[in-house]
């Protein structure tokens, strides 16, 4: 099969256009503000309500205000944004639809469970690579209260969670991308590896780290192989929400593939909360987990020169309550996006 | 704001790469086989079960076999397909995830409710325009039994439907796109207009045609304005599943915008079933409605020379049972894709 030069190996894209991160923004709730990354938030609502009349509306408001803030930080207005890629965890993606409908931007709804920030960032970059837009926004959100209702039990049941369970982040992250022909210094999306769905047959939906780890292994190892890179190429290889349990599996399985990423690896789910003082069991999760960590902590540290090259690999568990109740496994997916500082 | 030449007007993409429809396939259930488009199906299962143990698995099998058939008809193998864009109506998109996971193709999950075939086709074309792939598949599915369970009542309740309600198509359509540098004669994706979310405040989820019509109006009029085209440019302007009620609204509102598309307009929902002899009330609906009509009837008639130019505009209603139960409106979205025969 013939390939263009932009396509590397089996499944990696190499962007030839200057896809620059113009700005990013993130908001969270009380838990996220109290956590170690709290100071990277553009704002928070300690009630988690964001002026919504119900939790779904709260998440919609959260996502919209995050997008608006990112656009404002880019020095743009909403009218300058040509396309929006967004998605969330709720059935039929209503947090996003109701959140962004008033913005009047052509919308592409995307779904990759908690890997959604990777998918939206990747596809937004593809649109710029195709030279079909100049300014595009990639965003996603999750909310603890909507996710518990969607996937588990109403909050008032107060159900117990096993130690391998994760805590859904109340948060949203948005990134404004620009095809920057002037190539100003900044963070650029340079490559990306869209993920395949991996299913190792795990059915325990309370152990999503284990369900998603094989997908992260496949995407990271494919990315490194396709670009003939060693883990050391990156200052950080950042998974989304594998948590303690999933991260251990990731490191073990990647070693078996010949890649030791122990030194580079960081998991957003293990970083966003204080694992000593915040009772989140295996870590944070949800689309917002990787999105908030990227839009706040990761990009800020890149701007400050701490890290030059990051491989961002959010992971998603492709289940629903219906699939789980019918006894199905929990397949996973992970999309990798390479971010590099360029002078 | 600066625009590349590929971007026309406010929001229309013009593809400069040869994005050719290499093949298409569609499968349906008994209702679809008995309907006027039955002879365009590649196959059907009159039980609707497609060897599934439950309806969700049935839809997954249906979507996978449609993709496999389309790839086979293209003279390719699954390994030749570099990327897959797919989605469906079920919560967390499980019909697609479980359907395609065994194919081993990097997957982009997309959600635009019943406009999903438009979104998947549009984004697959963008990927080819970016020269990041040579062969991409766009697909979607819906299933009467899973959709009734997801959005309405269990089938065994036998609930009554109002005359403006539509019947969810059991069906899947898949299209294989190729960046055809040889530019062989065939159907090409030449332009596309991604849609904005439109909300006219309608809350009647049994009248989805009315909810979606404003989005179709906005996308079609924007497309024609952006490209400075009259409706006569197209042999057919094809909406997805507006049905009888929504189609009347579409024609009226477009006339108010200065566009009379009465002669060109066709609605997949009004075409896929026999409105005299099949009791579907306002017509067919679901992601599969536009997808089956495109992959079967529309593309076959283009191949046979009956139509040279089609504007395909599937429409989606962005609701969930939760948003409806909370009293929310039903916003709509429509994505337009221009298909043209080239010698």
Q: What does this molecule look like?
A:
The structure is a homodimer of 343-residue chains. Chain A is an alpha/beta fold and 343 residues long. Chain A folds into two domains: 7-179, Stage V sporulation protein AD (Peroxisomal Thiolase, Chain A, domain 1), CATH 3.40.47.40; 186-342, Stage V sporulation protein AD (Peroxisomal Thiolase, Chain A, domain 1, 3-Layer(aba) Sandwich), CATH 3.40.47.40. In chain A, 33% of the residues lie in helices and 24% in strands. Chain A has ten helices and 16 strands. In chain A, helix 3 links the parallel strand 4 and strand 5. The radius of gyration of chain A is 18 Å and the shape is globular. The first copy, chain A, starts with 6 loop residues before the first strand and ends with a strand. The mean pLDDT of chain A is 96. The interface between A and B is large, with 65 and 65 residues.
Biggest interface, residues from each chain: A-B, 65 and 65 residues
| CATH C-level category of the largest domain in chain A | Alpha Beta
Beta-strand share of residues of chain A: 15-25%
Q: Helix/strand-derived class of chain A?
A: alpha/beta
Number of strands of chain A: 16
The end-to-end distance of chain A, rounded to whole angstroms, is: 36 Å
Mean pLDDT level of chain A: 96
Helix and strand topology:
The structure is a homodimer of 343-residue chains.
Chain A: E1 7-8, E2 12-28, H1 30-34, E3 43-44, H2 55-73, E4 83-87, H3 94-100, E5 107-109, H4 116-129, E6 135-142, H5 144-151, E7 167-168, E8 171-179, E9 186-193, H6 208-226, E10 236-239, H7 243-256, E11 265-267, H8 268-271, E12 284-285, H9 287-303, E13 309-313, E14 315-317, H10 321-325, E15 332-334, E16 336-342
Parallel strand pairs in A: 2-3, 4-5, 4-6, 7-12, 10-11, 10-13
Antiparallel strand pairs in A: 1-2, 2-8, 2-9, 6-8, 9-16, 13-16, 14-15
Helix pairs in contact in A: 2-3, 6-7
């Amino acid at each position: 099969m013939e390939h263009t030069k932009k396509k590397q190996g089996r499944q990696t894209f190499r962007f030839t256009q200057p896809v620059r991160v113009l700005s990013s923004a993130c908001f969270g709730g009380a838990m996220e503000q109290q956590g170690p990354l709290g100071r990277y938030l553009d704002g928070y609502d300690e009630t988690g309500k964001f002026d919504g009349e119900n939790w779904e509306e709260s998440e919609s408001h959260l996502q919209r205000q995050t997008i608006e803030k990112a656009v404002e930080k880019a020095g743009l207005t909403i009218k300058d944004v040509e396309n929006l890629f967004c998605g969330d965890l709720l059935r039929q993606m209503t947090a996003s639809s109701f959140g962004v409908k008033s913005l009047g931007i052509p919308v592409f709804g995307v779904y990759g469970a908690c890997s959604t920030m990777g998918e939206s960032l990747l596809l937004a970059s593809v649109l710029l690579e195709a030279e079909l837009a100049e300014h595009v926004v990639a965003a996603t959100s999750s909310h603890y209260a909507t996710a518990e209702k969607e996937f588990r039990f109403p909050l008032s049941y107060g159900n117990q969670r096993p130690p391998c369970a994760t805590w859904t982040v109340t948060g949203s992250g948005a990134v404004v991308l620009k095809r920057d022909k002037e190539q100003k210094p900044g963070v650029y999306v340079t490559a990306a590896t869209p993920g395949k769905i991996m299913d190792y047959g795990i059915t325990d939906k309370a152990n999503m780290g284990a369900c998603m780890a094989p997908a992260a292994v496949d995407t990271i190892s494919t990315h490194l192989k396709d670009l003939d890179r060693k883990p050391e190429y990156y200052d950080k290889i950042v998974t989304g929400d594998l948590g303690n349990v999933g991260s251990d599996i990731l490191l073990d399985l990647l070693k078996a593939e010949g890649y030791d990423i122990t030194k580079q690896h960081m998991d957003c789910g293990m970083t966003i909360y204080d694992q000593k003082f915040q009772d989140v069991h295996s870590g944070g999760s949800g689309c917002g987990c990787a999105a908030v960590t990227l839009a706040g902590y990761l990009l800020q540290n890149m701007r400050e020169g701490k890290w030059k090259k990051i491989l961002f690999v959010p992971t998603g568990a492709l289940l629903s309550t219906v699939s789980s109740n019918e006894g199905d496994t929990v397949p996973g997916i992970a999309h990798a996006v390479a971010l590099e500082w360029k002078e």
